[in-house]
Each structure stands twice: as structure tokens, then as C-alpha cells.
Amino acid sequence: MSFNEKFDQHGVWRREFALRLKLLAGWMKDHDLLDAGVEERLHRLESQVRSDKVMVAFVAEFSRGKSELINAIFFAGYGRRIMPASAGRTTMCPTELGYDADVPPCLRLLPIETRLQNQALMEWRMVPEKWTRIDLDVNDPAQLAQAMEKVAETRAVTVEEARLLGFWHDNHPEDNPRVAADGLVEVPKWRHALINIAHPLLKQGLVILDTPGLNAIGAEPELTVSLIPQAHAVVFILAADTGVTKSDLAIWREHLITEGDGVEARLVVLNKIDTLWDALSTPEHVQAQIDRQRATSAEILGLPQSKVIPVSAQKGLVAKVTGDAELLLASQLPELENALAQGVMGQRQKILRAAVAAGIAELKNEAGRAIHIRRRDLAEQMIELRGLRGKNTAVIKHMRSRIVQEQVEFDAGGAKIQAVRSVHLKLLRDVFHLLGTPTLKAELAELTQALKQPGIKLGVKKSYGQTFSRLREGLAKSQILNADIQSMLTASFRQLNVEFSFSLLAPKEPELGRYQHDLELIERSHLQYLGVRNVLKLSQPDFADRLVRALATRLRVVYESALGDVELWNKSAASQLDAQLRERRRNFRRRIEAIERIQQAASGLDERIAEIHDQERVLIELDTRLTEITSHLVDGPGAGAHLRTIPAALERTDSTAEKIAGKAAVTDAA
Ligand SMILES: Nc1nc2c(ncn2[C@@H]2O[C@H](COP(=O)(O)OP(=O)(O)O)[C@@H](O)[C@H]2O)c(=O)[nH]1
Ligand SMILES: [Mg+2]
User: Fold this and answer.
1) Model pTM?
2) Ligand 1 atom closest to Cα of 68?
3) Pocket of ligand 1, candidates 64, 68, 95, 309: which has the most ligand atoms within 8 Å of its Cβ, to mutate?
4) Domains, the chain
5) Are 94 and 212 in contact (CB under 8 A)?
6) pLDDT per residue over 638-655, tens digit each?
């Protein structure tokens, strides 16, 4: 299966899932199972699946064939080159291809001069008016390709300007651009490009990042410390005609080597194998030469040979456009696509599905608990009513006043519930403080200060180390606080359960360990980046500033999602309390209503008992369906057959169920 097919399949699964989730939400609402905690969880699941992006980054030195490979893998369907990829017309700025339905098809370009200001790239994304916009006509591949040529534009500037923009380094003269006769040097005109087109794969959440060569990557710290490490797959490209050059190796070492997690997501491609094709040699001889190149490249990069995939992007593109199956096979492009599909997409799917399955399990527990409480209340009422059989009016009247008395006592106990709630909130406030933006800002302000000190270059590792150990400490502290809150909740819930015969169960506390892991990855990517030669760039104050800003935007994402987990946890605890209070109040009302009916008519008792029987049956059915629907939800793609059975199951209306739900809604409003 090719990457495109696998990605498509993933998209189908996501759409089906979103649809099923919507049906589930509607069904839950109809049966009054949608409390605030459940709703929040549904909402998160939906946005997690809907907004799931898969980013594939192509990183290499100039002219290795990144853009050509992108054309061949993703855009062959347009019948021509979309990304400029011909000698002398290379991408000069990082270019992201994606799809955002809120923006018309367009190319947006951020001027290179924005580097002189210190906002992070992430922040520039929020100010669309600073970008130059060119509308794209997706039905006109020629116009599309012509517009894309913009990413190859350059500007001539003085050496001083080039230095300010980050393209000139006195300590690395060999990497500097050539000075023309007029004393000017060529630098990219644009800093970053965003391409928005409704290509089928992009529409489903694929984001492709095409990067220029080493010089431009090095000047944009955010690329190295944020975009590339966060990509789900990074394709590093070598060319068979050049082998591994010094600058290839520099990119590999400074920007791509990762230990642990990242390894699976790295693909190394040996492109341009067609340059080794030779009509005068036997195919075996050519293959032997390709194998030799492959082995040498793998050895230099320190990888097993199997990790280097030989292809010809150019022949692959031509073969796809002309429908030449034999050439496509020879280009070996399908092997690369397969590796992307299995490795990258397979991994991504697994992760997303596991997350979704965990969320659904929690959802089911919470909704299941509500059903359980209702059943228990009915059972108790049943005992109460059976006890009234054959009793005279005085006993019935006494029963009524007992229920009223119970209700009064319950309402008086409400203060205890309030107390639990306010202790909970008070403790949470400390966690919110630890994980909040102001705290993070303060930590990073210290780092900025440290990096700005003259002569800091050697102490930079230490400053990073200190900042990150403080951040880790903060996270660890939040985790301890969370554990305290969890024990408090467990104890108070147990007590409330005894006192009010509730069935509260403290929801699972958030697992902050994975955010510790994120911090480690972020620190490592920064240190690796600074380790080799970029540390010298820190003598430029604005470079240090840009670096910290890049760090801040990445950390903010981590902290926001940690905070989100804590909020969800809090919401499910609070909404359990709310739900049980509400159910109990409703229960009192029902019991009193029942007694009143019995007082009014002799047949009232039997009628009410029959009703409770019906309601019990409905609840049992509700529970079965909840299990059914939630287990279908986590099925794999192509489980469309299940999807079709669900709406039917949901549509099957049950008059008694409706009566209960309807009645509940009315009494709640009262
Ligand atoms: N022979 C050959 N040339 C290729 C291949 N892929 C790319 N090229 C050429 O290499 C040059 C640079 O390609 P491009 O995609 O722009 O490289 P980038 O700078 O890495 O994006 C262009 O002239 C391409 O036509 C290939 O597989 N075989
Ligand atoms: Mg290019």
C-alpha cells in the first residue's frame, strides 16, 4: 500500500469516527447521559481526531531533490511539477503545504525582513496581514506552478544586511553566500511560505514541509528546534551523484540525529539513482553500484543499510505522469512510499487509536455510572412501594412525610458537598498556577537574561540545564499536588458515598509523566542544535531572543495540554457530584409524586410498580446499547458495516425511554 492510500484510509477512519461520535453525543443527550464531564470528553475526542495533522518534512542540502520528491510522491496527479525543482530554481525558504478550509487557496509569503523583529514564526502566523498573499487557481496547474516559483525568489543585499538577517557569519566564511561584483549578496526574499490548497491528502490533514539547504535551516532556529522535531516523519535526502558531502553530514548531525523515539520517524533517501543507470552496463552491474553507494552512505551516517532507500524522484514523477509502469518500478519510488505508509502512517494511526480508545473507555465508564445510579434508585423505590402493598392510608401518609424528612436532611447535607468542592478548587488553583502561562514566562525570562550576558557562549548549556531542571521540578510538583488532590477526592467521595449512598468514583488523575518526557525531547533538540556550531551565533542578541521565543512557543503547547488534562479531570469529578445530586433530587420528587398518586387512587400503586419495571428494562437496554456503540467506535477503518448498523440502532425509538427522558427534562427545568 502506498503512503497516499494509507493516508486516505486513515482519513476515512477519522471521518467515520467523527460521525459516530456525533451520533453518540446525540444519543446520549436524548437519554440524559450528557453531563458536563462527558460532554467535555466527547468534545476533546472529536477535536483530537478532526484536527489530527500528519507532518512530513523533507530536509537536505540544496539540490538533493526534495522538491522533486514531493512532486513525485504527492503531486503527480496534477500532471506536471508543482514545486519548482529544476536546476537553478530551487526553494529558497521553508515551504509548508497544507489545507485550511477557512482560507481560500493561496500562497502566503512572509518577508525575510521579519527576521529583524523578534516575534517567533508561530506568532507571525497569527498576523495574516504581514504575509504577502497570492491566490491560487487549483484547476490551472500552470498558474499553480508559476505562483510556486515565488518560493525561489531572492534579493540582493549588502553584507551587513545579510549578517543581520542571519545569512552571514564571520566565523564560518565557507558557508557565506558569494559576494557579487557590486558587493551585494543574494539572500532569500521570503522567510517562510504557506501554501493552502485543497489537495485530497492535504484536506485530510497532511502537512508537507519542504526546506531549503543548510544555510537557511541554520538561520531559522524554530525550524530545527520546533518544526522538524515535531514532524511525524522526516525524510533526509542524499544524492547518488554526490554521495555524502560535508554539508550533508552537517545537516544530519545538527538537525536530524535523534535517539530513542525519533529514530522510527527518520527516513533516509538516496535520490537520483538514475544518474547511475548506464545503457552500456548490465542491470546487475548498475544494481551493484547502487548497492555500493547505499552501503557507503549508510556507513557514514551510522545507519544499517536497510535504512537508506534508493530512488529516482525525477524518473518516478515522469513515470507517474506518463503512466509508465516499468519506469516507475525502476525508479523504486513505490518502495519509499511503502516505507512512509507502514512506518509513519502505521505508527501515527496506532498512537491516535490508542488515545481514542482510552478516551472512549472513560466516556463509557462515566455514562455507565449514571445508568447504574438510576437503576439503583429504581430498585430502592421498588422496595419502598412493595412495602406499601395492602397498607392503610395512615401508613402511606407516614411514608410521605418520611420522604419529605429525608429530603430536608439531604438538602441540609449539601454544605458538606459544597465543602468538598471548594477544597478541591482551592487545591487545583495551585496546580493551575504551576502550569500557567505566567509561570512559564517568568522561567523563560530568566533564560533570556542568561543568554544575553556577554561571554555566555560557554555557559549556555548550563543555563538551559538550569531552566529545564526548574521546569521539570515544577511539573513534578504539580504531579505531587495532583496526587494529593486525588487522595483528597478519593477520601471525600468515599465519605459522601457512605453518608448519602452516592456512587462517586474519583476519575483517574492526569498522567503528567509524558510531559516530562516532552520537556526532555525539547531540551535535547535545543542542546543538539546549539552543540555544534550555532552556539557562536548566540553572540548576536537577537538570535538568542529568537531561540528563546521558539522555545517558548513549543513549551506553551506542552503546558497547555498538561493544563487541559488537569481541567478535564477536574470537570469529570465536579460533574459526577452534580449528576448525583441532580439524580437524587429527581428521585425525591419521583417518590413523592408516586405517593401522591397512590393517595389519590387505589390503582396508583400497581401502576407505579409496573412503570418501574418498564423503566428498569429500558435502563438495562440503555446499558447494553452504550456498550455496543462505544465498542463499535474504536473499530478500525473499513468497519463501515458497523457504522451503517449504528444509526439504525440509534433510530430505534423506544417510547418508554423517551417518556423517561422527556419527563426528566421537564422536572429538571422545574
Ligand atoms: N537525475 C536526477 N535529477 C534529479 C532527481 N531529482 C531531482 N533532480 C534534479 O536535481 C535538481 C534539484 O532538485 P530539487 O528538487 O529542486 O532539489 P531541492 O533543492 O532539494 O529541492 C533539479 O535539477 C532536479 O531536476 C533525480 O531523481 N534524478
Ligand atoms: Mg527545493
Assistant:
1) 0.79
2) 15
3) 68
4) 53-153+189-331 (3.40.50.300), 413-586 (no CATH)
5) yes
6) 444 444 444 444 443 343
